[in-house]
User: Which sequence fits this backbone?
């Protein structure tokens, strides 16, 4: 199916309604910046995905659609092959998005006022999901070390004593930490001791490097009975616009409660193109993914080396997973508004302000490296010019 040349190609997305490119002006009031923000890649999806969508599109009726056995089998086989986790068919609950699942899980397992732990800085919808449902936000702040962010386990233990739910992000966005087995086991012990339900957003699980492998949280000893794993092919294969994800919930009672919340929200059938895309990606997208990872690795190395040499007051933390780079800009001594202005208006680069990931992200910016090497080169050129000007003004 995808035997010819399945190399991801950088594609100009302007004029397609792309949030990342075409949504810049309305969302941020800037039109001439290079968009390196939302976690969305600028590369063609695997050939298998494109062909499957084209084939389905040829049939002229796009009515309500069932998920079908191929959908479940593709997920099961992907997890077994890639992560060595054998999932049962009935554990899989198809969904329209991981953020939706986070919200439904909060509704399903907690009441207003209940404590929910998030490890900040964190992907902003974690924070809004807790706040909008009027649950108590318990922040377990990560500690920044030279080699990346680490968990403050004493604080996690203390917060767990007043929590019902832990919203884990594994791998973690924005720190890019791929939690080690040792760290995950410590989290698991705490979850067990305090009887927490763990909702583990593992959407970035496929984007890891150098033979490293992420461990599904529910696959840790004793965790299947208290964990929901949330995943999707969206980040991995650049198909986020198809709004198709899934939850893996091994425990019957937790699954029933989740399904109830799903039904209460009036959700039912899936996205006709999302279903075929997921199946095609998980069955025919593996070779493409390996090439994609090589491109990210080279982009990330380029940005990190460039900054170390030319913009030394900006410190990119090591990238363990994802195509994102968490930049520690605190040495520049700018307030969060000034830092944003520096990137948006001086450098003309649109990155996510660290503070949007919670106060713990103050002084940081998040850069998305899932774009062409050429564009990154232009971006670094702009950054260096702005940086020099800033340095002269010191
Ligand atoms: C950690 C994390 N979870 C969820 C999402 C979004 O998932 P979805 O589009 O399926 O709601 C993102 C997107 O950036 C993310 O980084």
Assistant:
């Amino acid at each position: 199916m995808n035997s010819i040349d399945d190399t991801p190609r950088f594609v100009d997305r302007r004029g397609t309604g792309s949030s990342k490119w075409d949504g810049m002006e309305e969302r941020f009031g800037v039109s001439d910046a290079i968009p390196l923000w939302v976690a969305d890649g600028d590369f063609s999806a695997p050939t298998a995905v494109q062909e499957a969508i084209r084939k389905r599109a040829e049939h002229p009726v796009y009515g309500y659609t069932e998920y079908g056995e191929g959908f479940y089998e593709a997920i099961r086989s992907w997890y077994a092959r890639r992560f060595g986790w054998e999932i049962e068919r009935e554990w899989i609950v198809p969904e329209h998005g991981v953020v939706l699942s986070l919200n439904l899980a909060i509704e399903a397992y907690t009441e207003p006022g209940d404590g929910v732990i998030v490890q900040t800085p964190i992907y902003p919808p974690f924070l809004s999901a807790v706040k909008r449902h009027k649950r108590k936000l318990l922040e377990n702040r990560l500690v920044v070390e030279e080699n990346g962010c680490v968990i403050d386990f004493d604080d996690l233990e203390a917060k767990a004593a007043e929590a019902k739910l832990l919203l884990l992000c594994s791998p973690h966005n924005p720190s890019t930490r791929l939690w080690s087995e040792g760290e995950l086991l410590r989290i698991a012990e705490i979850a067990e001791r305090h009887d927490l339900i763990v909702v583990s957003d593992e959407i970035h699980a496929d984007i890891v490097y150098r033979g490293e492998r992420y461990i599904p949280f529910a696959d840790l000893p004793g965790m299947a009975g208290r964990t929901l794993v949330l995943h999707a092919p969206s980040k991995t294969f650049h198909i986020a616009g198809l709004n198709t994800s899934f939850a893996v919930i091994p425990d019957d009672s937790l699954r029933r409660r989740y399904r109830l919340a799903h039904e209460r929200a009036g959700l039912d059938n899936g996205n006709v193109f999302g279903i075929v895309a997921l199946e095609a990606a998980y069955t025919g997208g593996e070779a493409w993914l390996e090439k994609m990872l090589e491109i990210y690795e080279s982009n990330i190395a380029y940005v990190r080396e460039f900054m170390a040499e030319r913009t030394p007051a900006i410190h990119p933390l090591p990238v363990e997973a994802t195509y994102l780079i968490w930049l520690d800009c605190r040495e520049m001594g700018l307030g969060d508004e000034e830092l944003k202005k520096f990137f948006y208006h001086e450098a003309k680069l649109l990155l996510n302000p660290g503070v949007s990931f919670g106060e713990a992200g103050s002084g940081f910016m998040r850069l998305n490296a899932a774009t062409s090497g050429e564009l990154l080169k232009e971006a670094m050129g702009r950054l260096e010019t702005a940086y020099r000007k800033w340095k002269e003004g010191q």
